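Q: Protein A?
A:
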Amino acid sequence: MRFFTALAALLLVAGPAMAERIKDLGHFQGLRSNQLTGYGIVVGLAGTGDDNLEYTTQGMRSVASRFGQQLPAGVNPALKNAAAVIITADLPPFAKPGEKLDITVAALGKAKSLRGGTLLLAPLQGADGQIYAMAQGNLAVGGLGVAAADGSNVTVNVPTAGRIPGGATVERAVDAGFATTPELRFNLAQADLTTVGRVANAINASLGAGRARAIDAVTVAIAAPQGAELRTALMGQIEDIGVSPADAPAKVIVNARTGTVVINGAVRIAPAAVSHGKLTVRVVNDLRASQPEPFSRGQTTVVPRSDIAVEEERRPMFRFDGGASLADIVKAVNAIGASPADLVAMLEALKEAGAMKAELVVL
């Protein structure tokens, strides 16, 4: 229960909201990363490849044809040392040709491990089907897989996926488009009507009245001169403007798998009474021998015997006054010694009773 007490103390001493930079609240429209994917072949594996998968064989035939080599018709290369893989990468905004990207490589077929493999040159495509980078390099695999002839095996982490730091080279830049749009648009990471209005007001206070206006709960439109150079300087100036974001809405986050409960400082409890108890029933089965009377010609038999005990842990009912804060909730929970599972049950009951004005999110 010390966790809940410490959490309450941290939130209570936090004080009023601090000013944050606009750049920490969202991003300008168009300045985003783009996902790249590709198909490739990893070679140099120690017998842990795809073996006879058809698409791996086709891939190797394609690789051989690049160098003028043709495999004879009907010949199966039995590629135990090669594997077909899927390659993924993120192309950051303003990435220029020649820059390096980190890539992730994952086995597509039956390969048992990619450890020690080398990725052959493979193109990476964007959502539009255009090639934006070329990938190649030696894999760094954190997992380990070992198999014996009798079928037993040991696997540590995931040996069928790895990374190549700087394994791709950018071949084409992506036009962000911010230099030619009628106006700049800044999008908040989280929709909030109060915060988006404060961002617009802060920009107007810094750059002049009428320069920015809130379009909806996410977007602020900003009048800007044409040209990439002028707009880049303007965006840098806007990103450093300080804004006090609105208080977060009242939320209770519950992770049902781990029993973790997080309550933010905006949660309030209406007048309510809570009773929490625990009933334990124990049943113990035992076998005992029953002996007949002397000279009665009876037989010894085994008789089952059951002992039943009922224990009820009595805990008093406690009451929340109107406007109870996070500190009051934690104090009450600590007083009755409730576990995280018990706390979840109480919060769900308070929400159902209408006494807790907060959003309950179960992960």
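Q: Protein B?
A:
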Amino acid sequence: MTTDASATAARRPGEQALTALGLGAPALDPADASPHTFPGGGRWRTEIPSCEGPEALAVVLKEASRLDVPIHRISQGSGVWMLTDAEITEMVEATGERDIELCLFTGPRGTWDIGGSTRTDSRGAGLRARGHDAVAGCVEDAVRATELGVQCLLVADEGVLWTLHRARAAGIIPAETTLKLSALIGPVNPAAYAVYENLGADSINVPSDLTLDHLTEIRRVSAAPMDMYIEAPDDLGGYVRMYEVAELIRRGAPLYLKFGLSKAPGIYPYGHHMRDLTLNTARERVRRGRLALDLLARHGADGDMAPLGSRLPGALKRFETPS
């Protein structure tokens, strides 16, 4: 999962012009670079998030073909429980035909239940699963989704993450099911990142406002794949970090580049009353991906993409599961 070569960007934005004007930046420090890669090679993968059903998925796949945007993973945010068995099966088959990983969110979360603390200024417990029944709902979603062929589950609670990791170890859900930590509870320091890895996370969303130095700090303690919104939805800050993509990869690899969308209304939980908005924003997320990939290419930093069809995280550190 590691490589001795430190990846360096071929050219930084504006580098030649600024150097000619005497305003060049200091040389990149090789010690800042992540030494890690995905298993099978490559330092970055792509993800299109917020793909809320078969119709949105069809739009994403069509637009990705039109714009030649490679996709490793497609994720959904409303939850397994917001899809019928037929819809899940259709999504599994469509992504399977293209060797794309499909990731569906697991069940009840605090922002949608009756708990009032999430509506206070402090946001209380956020998206975490409140009480035994909420954990049970997430497990029910996980079992149902994996029985229908879903191989990746999105989780927004530490207890649910550990429970599903144990379920995976016990054979209750398939051993090769991957568990992805939601950006809504993403860690902001290396100690927390390492804890989530040990709890069973196979890829870990970090908030999009982490600095480049923060990514380097994390990579000194963990090789677990990292997910980051290159453009974040407004409820996650609305950050647009297009010009930093090459450096984000250099510091954060192995990294999933997530193409979100700012200045767009939220669509969770999705229903057909939001159809037009959902399809339009799905299409635009793919276009945002094309913009980021074009920028990487212009800087000569578009190499080292992980092979399409790759999805597993490699060997990671885990807490010992009880027998």
